[in-house]
């Protein structure tokens, strides 16, 4: 499962365009104006990989928990993450083979810098953001999105000093920037990813990432060629497997005593449980979901999958009927 703010969200298959009521969620990549906020981009254009509004809201809530703002902000920089135009670009699934978040493709693979990143500040106008490493918080970097260039901030060992330096102006800040060249083997690995070379997976797990990526298919990535028919049968098979998995989760949740369906006041109960659990958040491991929260998530996912299976079968029947008519 992904690190960063994504660690609590399950990875779901991309939906067939014909099965999605809200088509903008599957909009293809577009050239965005740099001043658009992440929320504006999601509202107007959507993102290549499907993301439900509820998940998007959870991501924003998660960023506020794990990406704290500095006490003071340099002019022209912000930490209001819902306004960051490239939040979903870097910290959501990418539309490439393996669907790795682009922050991992840039930092962990292309520049071979290990570890999880934590953004500190961003500037939509500059198309840049400053970040540190969770396990090495005395290192600071600037990624220039306009030129796809990574810099290390030299001579700075804490966040307060970083902010003070940036407050002095661009000239003082730029004087401390040292270019971080791409790693040759990392760039080669990226080319193999773009070429859909599955043999790169063991290399990524061994040398660049702390997990083994899962192979993906073009329809999952939202990149099916326009002249290629959507693989409906393959999609249904994958969806059937997901349905069976969700049924097992639901059965296990019921056996564990967390099945809330059918109980009086079910919706009210669902709303109250997260509020009660918030009181214990400080004592819980961030990487683990509360059992009741997990059970509710399983139930909700089950409902989504059942509806998706129904739509998929309807679409397949329509396609077969149309084929017979010709």
TrEMBL record:
Residues 267-276, 307-320 have a biased composition (Basic and acidic residues). Residues 246-326 are annotated as: Disordered. Residues 277-288 have a biased composition (Acidic residues). This is Uncharacterized protein. It comes from Tricholomella constricta.
């Amino acid at each position: 499962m992904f690190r960063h703010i994504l660690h609590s969200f399950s990875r779901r298959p991309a939906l067939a365009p014909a099965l999605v009521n809200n088509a903008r969620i599957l909009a293809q990549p577009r050239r965005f104006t740099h001043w658009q906020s992440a929320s504006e981009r999601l509202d107007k254009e959507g993102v290549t990989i499907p993301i439900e509004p509820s998940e998007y809201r959870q991501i924003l809530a998660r960023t506020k928990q794990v990406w704290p703002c500095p006490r003071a902000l340099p002019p022209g920089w912000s930490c209001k993450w819902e306004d960051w135009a490239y939040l979903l670009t870097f910290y959501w699934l990418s539309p490439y083979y393996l669907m790795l978040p682009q922050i991992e493709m840039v930092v962990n693979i292309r520049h071979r810098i290990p570890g999880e990143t934590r953004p500190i500040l961003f500037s939509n106008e500059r198309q840049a953001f400053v970040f540190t490493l969770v396990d090495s918080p005395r290192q600071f970097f600037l990624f220039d999105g306009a030129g796809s260039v990574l810099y290390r901030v030299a001579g700075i060992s804490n966040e307060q000093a970083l902010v003070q330096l940036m407050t002095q102006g661009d000239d003082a800040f730029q004087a401390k920037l040292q270019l971080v060249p791409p790693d040759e083997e990392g760039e080669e690995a990226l080319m193999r990813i773009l070429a859909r070379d599955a043999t790169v997976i063991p290399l990524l797990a061994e040398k660049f990432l702390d997990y083994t990526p899962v192979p993906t298919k073009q329809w999952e990535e939202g990149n099916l060629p326009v002249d290629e028919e959507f693989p409906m049968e393959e999609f249904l098979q994958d969806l059937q497997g997901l349905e069976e998995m969700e049924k097992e989760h639901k059965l296990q949740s019921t056996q564990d005593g967390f099945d809330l369906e059918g109980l009086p006041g079910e919706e009210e109960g669902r709303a109250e449980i997260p509020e009660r659990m918030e009181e214990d958040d400080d004592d819980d491991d961030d990487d683990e979901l509360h059992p009741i929260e997990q059970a509710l998530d399983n139930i909700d996912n089950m409902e989504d999958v059942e509806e998706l299976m129904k739509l998929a079968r309807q679409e397949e029947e329509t396609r077969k009927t149309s084929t017979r008519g010709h």
